[in-house]
Amino acid sequence: MYILSPVIRLLYLIGGKLNTISLRTFLVFLILFVISLILLLLCAAVIRRIWKGWKYTKLDRLRINYAELLRKSADSGTVSDDLSAYAARPKSVRWQAIEDVLLAMIDRNEYFERARELFFMLGYAAFNERQMGKKDIIEKITAITKLGKMASLSSAPKIIEMLDSENGEVVTSSVKALCQMGSPEGLQSILDRLPAIMGKANVSQKVIETSLAKFGPPAVPVFVEHAKKYAGRSLLITLLGVLAILKSREALPFVLECLNHEDPEIRATALKAVIPTQDIKGSLGNKVVELAGDSEWYVRLNAAKVLGMLSYIGGLGVMGKLLLDSNWHVRNAAATALTRMGNASLGIFLETLKSNKNDLYVVGNICEEIEKSLFVFTLFHNLKSDDETVRKQSREILNIMRSIHFYAPFVEYVRSGEDEWIKNEISQILSAKQEMGLS
Amino acid sequence: MIAWIVWLVLGFNYFVVFYYGFINITYSVLLAVSLIVIFRHLRRLKYSSHKEYRVSPKTPPISVLIPVFNEESVIVDTIKSALRLEYPYYEIIIINDGSTDGTLQTLIDALELKKIDLVYRPVLKTMPVRNFYYNPKMPNLLLIDKENGGKADALNCGINKSDSPYFCSVDADSVLERDALIRLMSNVMESDVPLIASGGVVRVLNGSRVEKGRVVEVDLPKTNLPLFQIVEYLRAFLFGRVGLDFLRSTLILSGTFALFNKAAVIEIGGYKTKSIAEDMELVVNLHNHFMRDKKKYKIRFISDPVCWTAVPENLKMLARQRRRWHLGLIQTLLAHRSMMFNPRYGAVGMFGMPYYFFVEMLSPVIEVLGYCVVLLSYFVGLISVDFMLLFLTFAVLFGVFLSMASVFLEEISFKRYPRWSHLVWLLAFAIFESFGYRQLNSFWRFQGILKYMLHDRKWEAVMKKRVA
What we know:
The structure holds two protein chains of two kinds.
Chain A: H1 4-20, H2 23-76, H3 93-107, H4 112-121, H5 124-131, H6 137-149, H7 156-162, H8 168-181, H9 184-192, H10 194-198, H11 205-212, H12 220-229, H13 233-246, H14 252-258, H15 264-272, H16 281-291, H17 297-310, H18 316-322, H19 328-339, H20 346-355, H21 360-372, H22 375-382, H23 388-403, H24 408-416, H25 420-431
Helix pairs in contact in A: 2-3, 3-4, 5-6, 6-8, 7-8, 7-9, 8-11, 11-13, 12-13, 13-15, 15-17, 16-17, 17-19, 18-19, 18-20, 19-21, 20-23, 22-23, 24-25
Chain B: H1 2-45, H2 50-53, E1 62-68, H3 75-83, E2 90-97, H4 103-111, E3 114-116, E4 129-135, E5 138-146, H5 151-161, E6 166-170, E7 174-176, H6 180-190, E8 195-204, E9 209-211, E10 214-217, H7 224-246, E11 257-261, H8 262-267, H9 278-292, E12 298-309, H10 315-335, H11 346-361, H12 363-379, H13 385-412, H14 420-453
């Protein structure tokens, strides 16, 4: 009550004052206030449009002029001769026009080195480095982003300091900028701070993977060395994610090692980084076959995809098991992978279809993938194959598809197929009333 | 007895003044917040990374779900616009919800589709699926033909068949800008916390020129009603949703254009087929579920991705739409009333839900009754003509101010209407809006409340002008 009493006294005072002003006067005041706001908005909208119109007309004109000037100078090698032609006050329209032209040249890889050189000589790099010291987060990240685009390697140490910022946006921009400029010390700094960047600063894994991949294949040994030395789980997954984008042969021995890791997510991510090369097909294939029996579904899924990529015949047996996996993603991936193995997969398909005739999801999955992958047309052409086993197996699979109503491509082929003999065979399959034991 | 009536009427008058002051202060706060947020967002946008994500293998795949019912004249353009999206990996799933016109055949002919047999896993229960269609030359396009079950049912069907971890719902008469998806997804990729739902801006397509599924020239419509709606949409999106998003109170993401994490939606059982505003119900349900389970998540409104959509051009259809929206709002708020003023639900419970209840839901009632009671008070001599006229003038002028502020926001931010004549007309209609159109809207929304109270909750179909 003691605390409230001054507040109550203040309210009485205000109430007393208000009593002396009539409600009518108050409303009139409010109306006039709102009218003035409306007029202000009207004026502001008109003035702003006029001003922006003038500004952007001038900016467009300057951009065109400077683009032409810079190209001519770059072609003749006289860019550095007369810098006064490009002198401008920071943040002026002229300044912005030159900056936009230089950034566009860098984006399009036109006169890349010339453009970079000019950024330094005209003071853009120095200006943006100063902007990085501002309190406003947006000014900071804009400056960092521009330095990244300019590939201002000399600014790397200052940007590296930003990696320790408390602000997640600043850290994200710094990571992107260092990766864009391809700074080797930047790369090392990011890798050293990766746990903090992902943990404290909460920079997302996808941003890090996308950014680090910009260093390209030359950085693969650095990623591998770092991953081997500092084997933290999330770090390893992130680096494997980067290697999965880069798909480098150089990383293959390390990736193969990771396939044996105790953590299933690391195994699964390592599978994504595998490249199907002929010389390691055998040893890799055996390892992947082993992983196709993993306890985690996402490992099995990636294993199925890799086996499909490798077209590894040694994996046929395990693929048959994956067709019956408890997870439908794995079943689908196995079916898709088998369709890539051509006629070698016929036996597996047929055996699985026959032995699981009562499980419509298993059977349906297989038939769906056969249709979606257009493997069904391979089966149609196999009806004319010289190999009796291939002919017989293909026909049996087609019969099963027909019996569970997966026959849309059959009708399509009969209507518009090329081979009359095959059309006839398919028509017979369509019209046959066969007891397949499948509902 | 008469004294009691007089006291009641006077009391109601004071209540209206107090209520009106309260909602205007709320709108003013939202406006101020929106101004600052949009300015800052525009400065961030200039150097956004969405162009890099357009070509990145790490960008997650999306399923674009387009539920269709009797849209044969516009659907092909919508599909063409969807096929031109600048996004690395996406599939388009069109769900024909039992159309009774030639929609199905139009799609089959225009896209050269053939039947395909696929397994349908009804993770979310839906009406039966009849057939699937595809074109081998467009492997990322699928048409599902199903029995009619409503928009929510069609979307659930699309979710069941989707192969991607995210899906984006798009209306059949809408045109997505090419970079709309990548702009939405950039925010998902850069979010430090799972962003399970996000939506962009919906703009009025009427009057603009569309060629090959793309808006090639933005223009204003020639008729009044869509012009009013342009101002209204600007107010709703650039001012209302931006402000509410900043206050972490996004409860509505327009069903015309919104991106969702599929697993999150399946976790809550998908779209509710009994709800009239299935889009709002989904978002509120997501908030309810994730906050109750104390999971980290975000739901955001992003102001730069754009989807263009046609709006009703006659009063009858517009009335139906507004009644339906308000009915849906009431249904959703009451279905999740346990979140109201519940600190367990953070800003959504303490600000978002009360805002929608007291400001959006109740305002038509207060407004309609307010006009009646104020006029009645004048005629029985309880208030002077001065006071009545001044109050009404202030009410109308403040509405004008808010609408003009929205046009101003558009002018300083995205400026999609480039010509001077556009600015003049938009400002003019921002003024005219408060002289009849807003009052009409309040009346329709009031009707929506009456319909709810009288248990008349059926979906009223809205036909919009075909913009080709």
